[in-house]
Design goal:
260 residues; Arc Repressor Mutant, subunit A; 14 strands
Length: 260
């Protein structure tokens, strides 16, 4: 027996007979907005989401999906790039302008430029069709695990600071010179991880594992998120002094006082 591979092909031996991982039973039932105009893909994905104990709402075009997003405020969006009415790239940009709701993009194109466009628009992750429904569920788990809101402790968590940068982990806000920066959940997680490990070099695969909780995936995801993060953190993103590239190895956080 083989399980359905979501896209134009059938057969995914790695899924055959494999259990579908469930979301954390201690968490409230999470709501996933799926925006895709392919009814076959929608049927398969909603089946996987149901088996993983997620609630799903579905739209088959961009404008309807945007209306549902604004009305329902889902916990995560699974978003096809090629949508009628409002394509996935513009959809993701509008979501990012309003909230930090996690977005996983689906694309039928394997070209790197198409994948990077989604990440630059603010997507947290992407999958290229055809893909395994079980892998999609695992990626949803990973994204939600990184972005879930932790109940505030009775005593405020101490702030992290480095030069003119201040991080409040309870509110997940990074400020520079007292001005809050607009970071996505993944950018926040990446920055805090590096901030907590100053003067250490991390390769892209290490960051994928530590920040994304993935032991697989395209390392260009890290490159794009680092570029976006530098645009918000650095005084001169073209000449970074805090989020430093160690060529051929990876990235390092240099405390601002030491970098000046």
């Amino acid at each position: 027996m083989t399980a359905t591979m979501i896209g134009p092909s059938i057969g995914w031996p790695g899924d055959a007979g494999a259990a579908i991982p469930h979301q954390d039973p201690s968490a409230a039932r999470r709501c996933i907005l799926l925006v895709d105009d392919d009814p076959d893909v929608v049927e398969v994905i909603t089946g996987y989401l149901h088996r993983a104990d997620y609630t799903s709402i579905v739209a088959s075009d961009g404008p309807t999906g945007m209306a549902l997003f604004r009305r329902m405020r889902p916990d995560l969006i699974v978003l096809d790039v090629g949508l009628p009415g409002l394509d996935g790239i513009r959809f993701c940009e509008q979501v990012r302008a309003e909230t930090t709701t996690p977005v996983i993009m689906l694309t039928g194109r394997a070209e790197e430029e198409d994948r990077l466009r989604g990440l630059i628009a603010g997507a947290d992750d992407y999958l290229t069709k055809p893909f395994s429904g079980r892998e999609l569920v695992l990626r949803i788990h990973a994204v939600l695990r990184r972005t879930q809101v932790v109940p505030a402790p009775q005593r405020p968590a101490p702030e992290l600071s480095a030069g003119d940068l201040v991080v409040n982990e309870s509110s997940r806000v990074v400020s520079k010179n007292g001005r809050p920066l607009t970071l996505t959940n993944r950018e926040f997680d990446l920055f805090v991880f590096l901030l907590r490990n100053p003067n250490q070099v991390f390769g892209k695969d290490e960051l994928m594992s530590e920040v994304w909780n993935y032991d697989f995936g395209d390392a260009s995801t890290v490159t794009v998120h680092m570029r976006r993060l530098r645009e918000k953190i650095e005084d001169d993103p073209s000449r970074p002094k805090i989020l430093v590239t160690v060529w051929g190895v990876g990235y390092r956080f240099d405390p601002p006082d030491a970098a000046r």
